[in-house]
Amino acid sequence: MRAVVQRVQEASVVVEGQVAGAIGRGLLVYLGVEQDDSQDAARYIAEKIRYLRIFPDSAKPMNRDVTDAGGAVLVVSAFTTAGDVRRGRRPSFDNAAGPEAAKPLYLQVCSLLADYGLEVQRGRFGAMMDVRSSNDGPICVLIDSKRVF
User: Fold this and answer.
1) Are 40 and 146 in contact (CB under 8 A)?
2) What is the distance, to the nearest Å, from the Cα of residue 27 to the centroid of all Cα atoms in its chain?
3) Whole-number mean pLDDT of the chain?
């Protein structure tokens, strides 16, 4: 499982002209599920997102987590995070999980984040989404449950 986590001033997802999810200050997470991912991967990703210290305080520019900063999380399903561009110029998505396997794990990550007490907004799984954000920094962090980077 992979996540691209962005610290944002605000973010929203629009589907067919309607806002599906929106947050103010917090984290925009593009989440991709791979074929061999499990509930353990979902727990790992959720915990990393919850405790990721990328918000400033008076001492350091990256010292607080999203809860400390009073932020929320917008989680967007994005199979493209599983893209492999090591060969050629067109990404291969062979390792991305199909919707029947990916959706329950995507929802589990959202649920786990909510269990941590976070406000969690979502995009619409499988839909063509217009994601809008105001990146704060810009701060972008990659998380991989297999710890390959």
Assistant:
1) no
2) 8
3) 97
